[in-house]
Write a structure and sequence with these properties.
Helix content is 70%, strand content 3%. It is an all-alpha fold. Strands 1-2 form a two-stranded antiparallel sheet. β1 and β2 form a beta hairpin.
Length: 149
C-alpha cells in the first residue's frame, strides 16, 4: 500500500488491473455474470484510485457506497474534466449491468459480457493514461504494479 500526495493510503490501482484480468478469464470460461461483476469492480477500483490521486475534496472512504463513488467521480473528474463524459457513462452502465448479473437472476448474454469486459479494459487504461498525462507519479506506479487483494 502506498500513500498519495494528499496523505491517503490506497491500493486500488493495481487491484483494478488484476480485476480486469480476472474478468477476461471469467469471460473466456463463459461465466458471463461473474465476468460482468469483476469488470464493474475493476472500474470501481480504478475510479476510486483516480479520485484519491486527484485534488478532489473527497474523503478516504469515498468508495464506501457505490452511488457515492459514482457521484464523486462524475462531479470531480467528469463534469468539468479532465475525463470525458463517456467514461462517466461507462461506469454507470457497468454498475447497472452488475446489478442485473448479481441480483436480478437474469443471465448476461455473452456478447453483452464481452462488451462490458472490453469497456472495463478501456476505462482502466484511460484512467492510467490520464494519471500519466497530468503527472500523478504515485498513482501511475500503483496502477502499474501488482499487489494482493
Amino acid at each position: 500500500m502506498t500513500t498519495h500526495a494528499a496523505g491517503r493510503d490506497d491500493d486500488r490501482g493495481p487491484k483494478a488491473e488484476r480485476t480486469c484480468a480476472s474478468a477476461r478469464v471469467l469471460l473466456e470460461l463463459n461465466d458471463t455474470d461473474s465476468a460482468c461483476n469483476r469488470a464493474y469492480y475493476a472500474m470501481f477500483d480504478a475510479a476510486r484510485a483516480a479520485l484519491l490521486a486527484s485534488s478532489a475534496p473527497v474523503p478516504p472512504a469515498v468508495g464506501k457506497t457505490h452511488s457515492g463513488l459514482i457521484t464523486a467521480f462524475r462531479l470531480y473528474l467528469v463534469k468539468d474534466g479532465p475525463l470525458p463524459k463517456s467514461l462517466g457513462r461507462l461506469l454507470k452502465r457497468a454498475e447497472e449491468t452488475r446489478l442485473v448479473a448479481d441480483y436480478r437472476g437474469d443471465a448476461i448474454a455473452p456478447d453483452d459480457a464481452r462488451v462490458m469486459v472490453e469497456q472495463a479494459e478501456i476505462f482502466v487504461a484511460a484512467l492510467r493514461a490520464e494519471c500519466l498525462r497530468v503527472g500523478l507519479a504515485q498513482p501511475v506506479s500503483k496502477l502499474d504494479r501488482s499487489s494482493s487483494r
